[in-house]
């Protein structure tokens, strides 16, 4: 079936959701549930109308652009000055909880799949570690949930995908070298030099382009050289420029996009309301496309290779692997048990895990990639359902539960 017709159906689904978003939001159906389900229903596992392949050039383009802009947009929302004073919780969750999650996840995968190379276990753990705050919107928006909790979930989600990316790239390179699937036989020194260049030149390009972009936009706004509609175009162009600039000098473009967003958001002095509005719409549209691709392309492949081991790994990442490291990272904080549970439970897996899995599957010819995709599909699929269905009830009962907890 022509790609044009397939994308026309996808757009019709997006239009329908947009027209009835208020009634849908009042139900148990979340955006990820709706579009992942729609993609699955239209894909080869359902009606077979959408038949895109994982190595399709269209999929590659959509995933690459989505990953670039998602990293850039998420990072641009973070204010570093606030991390020093108000964001102690997310700092603990990111600096202590996240490394522990990757380590514990790697150990769990090796224990459940002893035949799997440790590099592939590390790669899978890094892919499944980032969280997606979009799946916890009812918690974030509920007025009864303290701002410090919603901010912690939001900030963690905004930063952990960029922090996980170097680990994903490093583990993928190690696995490619171990499997000799790379066109060049990489030695440990060569891998170190390559990763070093990626980690140095990527952030360098991001800092320079993000800084210059912010200063130029502030200058143009101050002298009234630009118009609001072009601010959003300029903003997104900075993210893409950081990616291609880093790739040109041998750095990692995705890391550059993340660092550029972080720099841009913290250097920019003028408040540009249009950018915020523009970025929210673009981010939502890209999320929709990603969840559609997940349902139509990734889910059938993952489910075809799923087994009890991959299911146990998925359940482990949503429970023990997520909640134990977060509990450890919060030791010493004055939080009630229920608040600790909320922070531990709401580490939903979504956009970043999908994009990383698609990126690795398309970019590297790795053995055991089907098992990695199966773990990703089951983890994200269960997360979409579990976190999507539990967010509203837990938010609704937060105040009542906390009152019970506070009673002597």
UniProtKB/TrEMBL annotation:
<feature type="transmembrane region" description="Helical">
    <location>
        <begin position="158"/>
        <end position="177"/>
    </location>
</feature>
<dbReference type="GO" id="GO:1902600">
    <property type="term" value="P:proton transmembrane transport"/>
</dbReference>
<keyword id="KW-0472">Membrane</keyword>
<dbReference type="GO" id="GO:0005886">
    <property type="term" value="C:plasma membrane"/>
</dbReference>
<keyword id="KW-0050">Antiport</keyword>
<feature type="transmembrane region" description="Helical">
    <location>
        <begin position="93"/>
        <end position="112"/>
    </location>
</feature>
<dbReference type="InterPro" id="IPR038770">
    <property type="entry name" value="Na+/solute_symporter_sf"/>
</dbReference>
<keyword id="KW-0812">Transmembrane</keyword>
<feature type="transmembrane region" description="Helical">
    <location>
        <begin position="189"/>
        <end position="212"/>
    </location>
</feature>
<feature type="transmembrane region" description="Helical">
    <location>
        <begin position="373"/>
        <end position="391"/>
    </location>
</feature>
<feature type="transmembrane region" description="Helical">
    <location>
        <begin position="311"/>
        <end position="330"/>
    </location>
</feature>
<feature type="transmembrane region" description="Helical">
    <location>
        <begin position="284"/>
        <end position="304"/>
    </location>
</feature>
<keyword id="KW-0406">Ion transport</keyword>
<dbReference type="Pfam" id="PF00999">
    <property type="entry name" value="Na_H_Exchanger"/>
</dbReference>
<feature type="domain" description="Cation/H+ exchanger transmembrane">
    <location>
        <begin position="19"/>
        <end position="395"/>
    </location>
</feature>
<feature type="transmembrane region" description="Helical">
    <location>
        <begin position="6"/>
        <end position="24"/>
    </location>
</feature>
<keyword id="KW-0813">Transport</keyword>
<protein>
    <recommendedName>
        <fullName>Cation/H+ exchanger transmembrane domain-containing protein</fullName>
    </recommendedName>
</protein>
<keyword id="KW-1003">Cell membrane</keyword>
<feature type="transmembrane region" description="Helical">
    <location>
        <begin position="233"/>
        <end position="264"/>
    </location>
</feature>
<dbReference type="GO" id="GO:0015297">
    <property type="term" value="F:antiporter activity"/>
</dbReference>
<feature type="transmembrane region" description="Helical">
    <location>
        <begin position="342"/>
        <end position="361"/>
    </location>
</feature>
<feature type="transmembrane region" description="Helical">
    <location>
        <begin position="31"/>
        <end position="51"/>
    </location>
</feature>
<keyword id="KW-1133">Transmembrane helix</keyword>
<dbReference type="InterPro" id="IPR006153">
    <property type="entry name" value="Cation/H_exchanger_TM"/>
</dbReference>
């Amino acid at each position: 079936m022509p790609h044009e017709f397939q994308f026309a159906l996808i757009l019709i689904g997006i239009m329908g959701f947009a027209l009835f978003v208020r009634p849908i939001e009042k139900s148990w159906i979340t955006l990820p549930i709706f579009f992942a389900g729609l993609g699955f229903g239209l894909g080869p596992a359902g009606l077979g109308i959408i038949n895109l392949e994982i190595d399709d050039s269209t999929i590659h383009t959509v995933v690459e652009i989505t990953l670039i802009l998602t990293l850039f947009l998420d990072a641009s929302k973070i204010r570093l000055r606030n991390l020093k004073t108000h964001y102690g919780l997310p700092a603990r969750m990111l600096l202590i909880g996240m490394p522990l999650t990757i380590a514990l996840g790697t150990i769990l995968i090796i224990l459940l799949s002893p035949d799997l190379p440790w590099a592939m276990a590390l790669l899978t753990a890094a892919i499944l570690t980032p969280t997606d705050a979009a799946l916890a919107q009812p918690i974030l928006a509920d007025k009864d949930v303290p701002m410090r909790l919603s901010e912690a979930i939001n900030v963690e989600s905004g930063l952990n995908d960029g922090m996980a990316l170097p680990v994903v790239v490093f583990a993928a390179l190690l696995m490619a070298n171990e499997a000799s699937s790379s066109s060049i036989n990489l030695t440990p020194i060569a891998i170190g030099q390559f990763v070093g260049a990626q980690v140095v030149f990527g952030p360098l390009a991001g800092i320079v382009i993000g800084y210059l972009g912010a200063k130029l936009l502030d200058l143009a706004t101050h002298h009234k050289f630009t118009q609001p509609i072009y601010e959003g175009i300029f903003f997104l162009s900075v993210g893409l420029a950081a990616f291609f600039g880093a790739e040109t000098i041998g750095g990692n473009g995705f890391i550059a996009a993340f660092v550029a967003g972080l720099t841009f958001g913290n250097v920019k002095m003028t408040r540009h309301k249009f950018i915020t509005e523009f970025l929210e719409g673009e981010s939502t549209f890209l999320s929709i496309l990603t969840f559609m691709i997940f349902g139509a392309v990734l889910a059938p492949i993952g489910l075809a290779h799923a087994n009890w081991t991959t299911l146990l790994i998925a359940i482990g990442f949503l429970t023990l692997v997520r909640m134990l490291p977060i509990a450890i990272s919060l030791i010493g904080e004055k939080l009630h048990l229920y608040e600790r549970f909320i922070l531990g439970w709401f580490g939903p897996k979504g956009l970043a895990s999908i994009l990383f899995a698609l990126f690795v599957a398309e970019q590297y010819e790795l053995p055991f990639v089907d098992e990695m995709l199966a773990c990703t599909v089951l983890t994200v699929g269960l997360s979409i359902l579990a976190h999507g269905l539990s967010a509203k009830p837990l938010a609704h009962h937060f105040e009542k539960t906390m009152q019970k907890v506070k009673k002597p």
